Give the backbone structure.
Amino acid sequence: MTDPRPAGFGRRRLAARCRGITEAPSFGMGVFAVIMLNAALMGVETYSGLAAANRHLLQIAEQSCLTLFTLEMLLRAGAHADRPKAFFRDPWNLFDLLILTSAFLPFLRDNTTVLRLLRLARVLRTARFLPHLRILLLAVGRSLPGTASFLFIGALVVYVYAMVGWVCFASSDPQHYGSIGRAALTLFLLTTLDGLTDAVRAGLEISRFSILYYASYALLASFVLVNVLIGVVLNSLDEAREMEEADARARERAANAMDPADEVRDRIAAARLALDDLEASLELAKPVPPSAQERDRPADRQLETAV
């Protein structure tokens, strides 16, 4: 007797079970707690005396965290057993897989510095379980092109004012304006308005027109450009929020959508029903063959006409 279940039934059943585990709120909170525990262990290792006294315990805790992360990755991979390509389409899955596999590579395990940096990168995984933090990280990534343009304009403003400061104050204040580099560094520090009062007082001792120089720079660099940067970040934040909402709607539609194999089976069943109805209608429309008496009636009528 053949098994009526399709060949991919086992994979779909495994994916359904793993998906039920990974999509549970308790699973996300558990992984988040393990990530925080891993970060706390790294903080404890910075205290040399405490780390030396509890080295064995810290190693066991680190290995336990690594085991739990491996189990988490296996469950997430199992949740995509029926559609493996979808696992690699998720950037967070690729990031988690990269961080996890790096802990098992021999040449990375022997390098303590690289291994600690990779362990530190696990803290970034908290964004996977915190939607608002994920939106902020996405907004930072979206704002990078605009931030690059802002940095170029800011560097151009600093360079122009540094040249003007070198021309006007190089002989009187060589410590701050003796070269283009010193002048640019001075103006960069003045961008935060820290020490602006002392710079204005020193400039007034040289010339009363220096107030125009510092006032225009403070307005342009500390107010206009900073507000432009804030506008770029806020715009990117709105775009990131819209993208996150669109992804959430797409995941909801994908969760509610019918499995492709089941959809094909439903279409085949509907086609079979349609064929059965068509066959039944053809049987009803088929003409009935005449009886022997009905075949003899035309001959009898001809004889009656001849008589």
